[in-house]
Write a structure and sequence with these properties.
By secondary structure, this protein is α+β, with helices and mostly antiparallel strands. It contains 8 helices and 15 strands. 30% of the residues lie in helices and 29% in strands. Helix 2 crosses helix 3 and helix 6 crosses helix 8. The structure holds pyridoxal-5'-phosphate.
Length: 282
């Protein structure tokens, strides 16, 4: 039987219920994280839970959890479900209260839920690359917060799905921000370009790992905005996320990137990523 974490308690899936007036359900008023498990170890858990605590702080959500307590809870859940390779999704909402936009006063207890998912790494796509389409970024201006409000991302991903693409690369007035659930990179003349980690994108943990690899290997990591045209003319393009890892992009809006071939810097970053999986999974 699959266990779900509800606050600090593991319950059977059919018993995991949330209130109709939970603010996560009514307003998307909450935050989340998604942590990867490789070979029974959590990858970059510290970075993920630090980001969760930051997201909580940014939305004025008071929680008692620490990086250590969250890591412990997630380990307990993965172990209970016998998940060794896959991921753990965790969200915390501002809790259940009569519906009113302003925060409940006095505050109510936040509601944490988490579940696990077993799956294999996307080997085929990592080898051959994926297709993306470009679309307007219609989201709010605090994309740095990993909030439950994902309607813009949902609509972008649905647009990609409609056009048989893996991901939608979003742009604001022609400036590439990020994917619906990934960060985006253009590699040109040996330099890795990606949008600065400001309020317009989520500062991806995989993005940070890519930055570490670039630092290790003397590859310039340039955090300056670039256009859709620049992306389409790049030598290599990648997207990254906890589940997609360092994913090559071989077509954009139906046009091939680098003749549809995965390039050498992408391969170098993928190899570096393997080393980080080995050194940063605990
Ligand atoms: C909007 C968005 N950007 C970027 C990312 C990549 O972040 P990470 O590498 O931490 O998974 C995600 C992950 O889900 C995302 O939803």
């Amino acid at each position: 039987m699959t266990k779900i974490l509800v606050n600090d308690v593991l319950v059977e899936e059919q018993d995991a219920k949330v209130a109709y007036n939970d603010r996560g359900y009514n307003f998307g008023d909450g935050i989340y994280e998604y942590v990867r498990l490789y070979d029974n170890k959590l990858f970059t858990a510290k970075e993920h839970f630090e980001r969760l605590l930051r997201s909580a702080q940014e939305i004025g959500l008071d929680i008692d959890y620490t990086v250590e307590s969250l890591t412990e809870l997630v380990r307990k859940l993965a172990e209970a479900n016998g998940v060794t390779d896959g991921g753990v999704y965790m969200q915390i909402t501002r809790g259940a209260a009569p519906r009113d936009h302003a925060f409940p006063t006095p505050p109510v207890a936040p509601v944490l839920t988490a579940f696990t998912k077993s799956y294999e790494r996307p080997y085929e796509e990592l080898k051959n690359g994926v297709s993306v389409v470009t679309t307007d970024d219609v989201r709010w201006l605090r994309c740095d917060i990993k909030s439950l409000n994902l309607l813009g991302n949902v609509l972008a991903k649905e647009y990609a799905t409609k056009y048989n693409a893996e991901e939608a690369v979003q742009h604001r007035d022609g400036i590439v921000t990020e994917g619906a659930s990934s960060n985006v990179y253009a590699i040109k003349d040996g330099v890795v370009h990606t949008h600065p980690a400001n309020n317009l994108i989520l500062n991806g943990i995989t993005r940070r790992v890519i930055q570490w690899i670039c630092d290790d290997e003397n590859i310039t990591f340039n955090e300056e905005p670039f256009t859709v045209e620049f992306l389409k003319a790049a030598d290599e393009v990648i997207i990254s996320s906890t589940s997609a890892e360092v994913m090559p992009v071989v077509t954009i809006d139906g046009e091939p990137v680098n003749g549809g071939q995965v390039g050498p810097i992408t391969r170098q970053l993928q190899e570096g990523f393997e080393r980080y999986i080995a050194s940063h999974s605990h």
